[in-house]
């Protein structure tokens, strides 16, 4: 089948006001944790997406003025000429591949804290922000005039930096959204009260941006088609705003009210989930529309365009997982697409104030720093490599080493490839994680110089006998059974017939019933997902955590609230700030982490989710006495969880880095810094 022809509608150019996008692949604004702090990293990363065929590539939220400073999160900025130079590097990297560059002008209003700039924060009213005990300054008419002047000046700087699309951003609770909000905007002047008054500022910004830069740049607006929740801006009011402003912007970039759904993880939100709420806008405005939906299926993309839901396929995560997704569709290589798995590890790192990374794409964020290209490696490999373990680390190393030209053998004791990914993908909501395995197996299948042997447990003698030039040990890790972890340095006391299970037991098929205490000292997804599985299977589950909520780290992946809600809806009892002291035949002893007060709770079984133990016995046996011998260390390496139990993203990255580095001179990644 002529796949490229079939998807031809996705490759038709389309005008957006005064500029023309070369195709329908549109990387919408998304956070990177790079922003103003890592300008060269940012430029190379965005440029790579243009190289991969994205027709429009946008910045993240780009602050217009020091009164909108989101420190410690590295937002983009257009405050001054230095910022213009830094962002011009990004626009230029995007233009080098024929794509349009967009910039999302942003003012955080009451949400930010201005920790670095120390300017007073501004709001439609004086209110507490997102996280700091700081209230914003209520804006008076002069402040509004100033704000409009700053916005216009930033638009002019955007044009100077050579951007093609300039956004006005009245969404996600930031300053212009505060004005739209019935609850926040209690003004009695021309900017408050009726909807027409509340949208006055948005209208002025659109008109003034067009007047300032509209001769050369398209003016886009990012807007929630379903409003911001009834108390702020109802869905009907959002409709009325869109109807009133219709053709004022050149493009509508549509989101929805619930951010946790808009960028929901695959555990909770399916591909294309926004459609029912955004579908009405294109007809209403007559302007080109873009929206997201974590689209990785070319057919789903085509369907959206064919049915007139959108003109552009918006993507943040799919473009992170595969910057070359458009080219792969055009070339009829859909099977080579590295599909986003919806884990939100990308977002999590921005949430931590660090640069973007991706579970599926280990080159993300390394384009400039390490000089890694997501599709190319040098074919310079000579010799043979044995990889023990076909989890994410082993499979990634195998496919990259194969592409480099090494003779690669991968052996795994299990009868299926994928290691932890295959096991965990069977848990509730995690099926898409299997894509980490599937992409790599697909690549390996097409490499004649890579062999995969399943059902092959190797001991040190087998490895020695095999006689490969290089050995990579990627044997993973096992969950600890003794309760040791973040909160406990000594083994847990288990009295009498007390039954303790680990996540590995459940992954191996154990399904305890009766009263089960799930004890979480890990604070990410595993305990919550297992509790959901067991409660769904009829167990009476008591979720005990040393943290103050269910899986607090899940807040970084926009999953915490939904995880806690899911457990509550399943009737799970949640006990926070409690540590597990002892396990007996029919009960567990818990203690309050603040007072030390102990109490007993019924428990037929205790499932502990604490530390993992590296499965490094093979490595230790191989290295043995030679541990200090540098020559040996060069040919025997351990990678992934067997070196450092961590996220799947770490294992993939470790496999990639080891494979790129094998037999080459060590390279210290470059350090990005502000260009003065
Ligand atoms: P990582 O996340 O680091 O890739 P995983 O735990 O996902 O680690 O995968 C490790 C894989 O190593 C598992 O599939 C396991 O079956 C395999 N493995 C562990 N020990 C051996 C061994 N001695 N021989 C072969 N395979 C092994
Ligand atoms: Fe998708 Fe996960 Fe990569 Fe983010 S980190 S782009 S959610 S695979």
How would you concisely characterize the structure shown here?
32% of the residues lie in helices and 18% in strands. It starts with a helix and ends in a 15-residue tail after the last helix. Iron/sulfur cluster (SF4) is lined by residues 317, 320-321, 340-346, 358-360.
Reconstruct the topology from this structure:
Blueprint: H1 3-6, E1 14-16, E2 19-21, E3 25-27, H2 39-51, E4 56-63, E5 76-77, H3 81-95, E6 100-106, E7 122-123, E8 137-138, H4 141-160, E9 165-168, H5 175-180, H6 195-198, H7 200-213, E10 218-224, H8 235-245, E11 251-255, H9 259-262, H10 275-278, H11 281-285, E12 289-291, H12 298-306, E13 312-315, H13 317-321, H14 325-330, H15 345-351, E14 384-388, H16 392-404, E15 407-411, H17 420-424, H18 435-445, E16 450-453, H19 460-466, E17 470-473, E18 477-479, E19 493-494, E20 500-501, H20 503-507, E21 515-520, H21 525-536, E22 540-545, H22 560-569, E23 573-575, E24 578-583, E25 587-592, E26 598-602, E27 605-609, E28 612-614, H23 617-623, H24 630-635, E29 636-638, H25 648-661
Parallel strand pairs: 3-4, 3-13, 4-5, 4-6, 6-9, 7-8, 9-10, 10-11, 11-12, 12-13, 14-15, 14-17, 15-16, 17-29, 19-24, 20-27, 21-22, 21-27, 22-23
Antiparallel strand pairs: 1-2, 18-28, 24-25, 25-26
Helix pairs in contact: 2-3, 4-7, 16-18, 16-25, 19-23, 21-22
The chain binds adenosine-5'-diphosphate and iron/sulfur cluster.
The site of adenosine-5'-diphosphate (ADP) has 25 residues, from helix 16.
